[in-house]
Amino acid sequence: MRIQVNNISFTYTNQSGVNSQSLCQALNGVSLEILPGEFVALLGPSGCGKSTLLRILAGLLQPSEGEVRLDGRPPQQALASKQIGWMAQNPALLPWRTVKENIVLAQQINPQNGRTLLSTNELLILVGLADFSEAYPFTLSSGMQHRAALARTLALGAKLWLMDEPFAALDELTRENLTDELLVLWEKFQPTVLWVTHHIYEAVRLANRVLVMTPRPGHLHAQLEIPWPQPRDESILKFPTLVLKLRQMLEAGINQ
Amino acid sequence: MKDIINKKIFLVGLLILTACTPTKASPSSKISMTFMAGYKPQANLPFAGVYVSKEKGFFDVEGLDVTIEHSSGKGEHLQFLVTGKVQVTTQDAAVLLKRRADPGLPLVSIALIGQRGQQAFAALASSGLKTPKDWEGRLVGYKGTPPPDLTALLKATGVDVNKIKLVNVGFDPRVLTEGQVIVYPVYKSNEPYLIRSWGYDLIIWDAADYGIPTLGLTYVTSEEILKTQPEMLTRFLRASLKGIQYASEHIDETVELVLKYTGPEADPQHMRYMLETELADAQGKETSTHGIGWQTHDQWQSLADMLIQYDAMPQVDVDKAFTTQILNAARK
Amino acid sequence: MKTEDIKFSDALITLALICLVGILWEGFVKWQEIPAYILPAPSKILDILIKNASMYSYAGLLTIGEAIAGLIFGTITGLVAATLLGLWPRLEQAIMTLAILIKSTPLVAIAPLLTIWLGFGVLPKIIITALLTFFPVLVNVLTGLQAADPAFVEIFHSWHANRRDIYWHIRVPHAVPYLFAALKVSGPLALIGSVVAEWTGASGGLGRIMWLAYTNLNLPYLFAAVFILAAAGVFLFSTITWVETKVVFWEKSEQ
């Protein structure tokens, strides 16, 4: 899916009828373009509107100014046709349903027939939860719950994955494993991925391109291409250089 | 052949005739009514009269189908009476007058069973009190609002009301035995028995002994029912008075019958005591000539005067509060 | 130790504790020579209970029956009201005001009215109990419906779910634990409600026995009824808790 964002701004207001007060301006003049199949990391300090931008792309919020196009159409259409694969820190698996039932439910809501090419069992094998289809989420570890959420996202067959620090609550080792598996799945299914993080190292490890945002009111201040193919690890010579460069860009954005 | 047919016609005719003729003793259809005792099941005389009538079939003889209910003592039995949910209930004479005056309930006494009231005051014998004069400076209990017969009693014995400390007590005679009050308001046929059974001796002051008019329990109905169903009331009263008469002659058996209604929580000796005390107070000047339950204008007026004098009640027309119509009809 | 073992030894400890209290009570009454009309000894109370077993059984069943019927009735009404408010929040002010009015009106005022309209049977008792239990259920279930984790709502929105989906899949199941919390309060309350309703006029039941016994100052009979009431309360509470562990299975304690 191709993303085009044209000079959008967003201000949170408390809506009390005619006299709405503006509480905070989260985004100010953000423009970007993401090509289909790219893995783009969105890096920035906390509270600068990264999540807001994600929500606008998902069609869950309307920008106060500016325009967003997904494959040339407004985000609401992508939302309505379930092209949005949303993953956040809370895996949000319904605790009263098994893993399998959670995945099936995701497909039953606003069903888009004929889109999922893989069965639920196949999806679970892909995320390494083949033996846990009848398990309830409360019996699974955090890492496993995130895998289940990933399988659920895959089941949608969405072309755009919007990921808001989904593995941030996990320990480092689990997080690395999961992101590696995520990359495998990305290469297999080739969605466009926008990955929000404030973890510089992770951004360099995962993304083709890193967009750096300033604090609130956020706008895109710099970007960096990461030219290496996947899989990559930190033994690549220039890895630390790019990490340092990103850090400098980040600090520059903060000090603006 | 002709004989047989004739016999058959005769037999059939006889059958039809006997089916159609109402039997003399009971009317063609029974009248249903509900009696609600003004308190829980116990051996108060009006209640006992009804229990006996029901159990011994006196109501059946009168062609009445009587359902017996009991009040919880919060006064809702009067509400049920005036809304027609029950047809006869019981009520203390003084309260009857007060409710007529305010809020103006259309109550009418059809029989005055208690010729003397049961309200009295008691103290433990060990307190050393002898006359109401000794109450000065002591804690005296009352139930509800300070009763006029208390004020009347104090006046009659020359006691200074201001020297008495009045306190509102509920039903729980243990406040007397445990010393929370020194003088406790009692119902003569009730609490004294309990307190004595716990091993305490009592001294009792009865307002009537000091010339203060008191009247006891009545059978009461509403003006509406009196007007529209006097026949039913007459039959009810006739049977109930017969029940009371029976009770006075068969005390042991009556206690047994009462226990059927009270359940095992009641003490048979206590019930017996209650019955005997109230039977004694059912006799008076009027009843020796007119029978149990008789009531006169003078009796009611004396009570009303006392209540009005001690500010318990505004003016009321006592002649509307009672009637001898049903008593007269019942004796025929 | 298995969970079942833990539960069994819990029950034994509770039983032992109750027996200990009973023994201390008996000893105290005997030692201080307290008369039965002040505080009866447990031995006397049990004696009365056994001698009148059928009376107490029948009365107990009646009162518990009234309580359960009222509990069911009140719970259903509370659920209906909470559902209405969940779907049409505009009604909230009106319905909550009505609910608070009902809750604030003392039983003593309502009970005789109900008896006048509905007669002397069990129906007024059931209605009174329902009135008592309705409010906790309404408030709790409403809170539960509105307290769903926004993360769940968000992901449903990302699937373009409609309001009904969100209501049935997120809000309703989320409100179930809250319902049980309310039932744990309402259950014992319903029992008390039945008893109090019987005090205002009844032809049977534990409340009636208690009232009659008290006005006759027959305390052993009173306490015997109280024992049964307490046992019924514990039983009701335990049953509700047990059902909760079966229904809200996902909220087990961490292993």
Description:
Chain A is built from 8 helices and 9 strands. Chain A has helices at residues 50-58, 75-80, 99-108, 120-126, 142-156, 172-189, 200-206, 239-255; strands at 3-14, 21-34, 39-43, 65-70, 84-87, 160-164, 192-197, 209-213, 220-225. In chain A, α5 (142-156) packs parallel to α6. Chain A is globular. The mean pLDDT of chain A is 88. Residues 20-26 of chain B have low confidence and may be disordered. The mean pLDDT of chain C is 88. The chains are: A alpha/beta (256), B alpha/beta (332), C mainly alpha (255). Chain B binds chain C through residues 40-41, 69-74, 76, 79-80, 83, 85, 171-174, 178, 194, 198, 262-267, 270, and chain C through 35, 37-38, 52, 55, 108, 112, 115-116, 119-120, 199-201, 203, 209, 211-213, 215-218, 221.
Short description:
Chain B is α/β, with parallel strands linked by helices and 332 residues long. Chain B is 45% helix and 16% strand.
What are the main properties of this structure?
heterotrimer; B: 332 residues; alpha/beta; five-stranded mixed beta sheet; three-stranded antiparallel beta sheet; 45% helix; 16% strand; globular; C: 255 residues; mainly alpha; MetI-like fold; 10 helices
Task: Give the helices and strands, then pairings.
The complex is a heterotrimer of chains A (256), B (332) and C (255).
Chain A: E1 3-14, E2 21-34, E3 39-43, H1 50-58, E4 65-70, H2 75-80, E5 84-87, H3 99-108, H4 120-126, H5 142-156, E6 160-164, H6 172-189, E7 192-197, H7 200-206, E8 209-213, E9 220-225, H8 239-255
Parallel strand pairs in A: 3-7, 3-8, 5-6, 6-7
Antiparallel strand pairs in A: 1-2, 1-4, 8-9
Helix pairs in contact in A: 3-5, 4-5, 5-6, 7-8
Chain B: H1 2-20, E1 31-37, H2 45-56, H3 58-61, E2 64-70, H4 76-82, E3 88-92, H5 93-101, E4 107-112, E5 119-124, E6 139-142, H6 148-156, E7 165-168, H7 174-177, E8 184-187, H8 191-197, E9 202-206, E10 217-222, H9 223-228, H10 230-249, H11 251-262, H12 268-281, H13 285-290, H14 297-309, H15 325-330
Chain C: H1 3-32, H2 42-51, H3 53-87, H4 92-104, H5 107-118, H6 123-146, H7 150-158, H8 163-199, H9 206-215, H10 219-247
Helix pairs in contact in C: 2-10, 3-6, 3-8, 4-6, 5-6, 6-8, 8-9, 8-10, 9-10
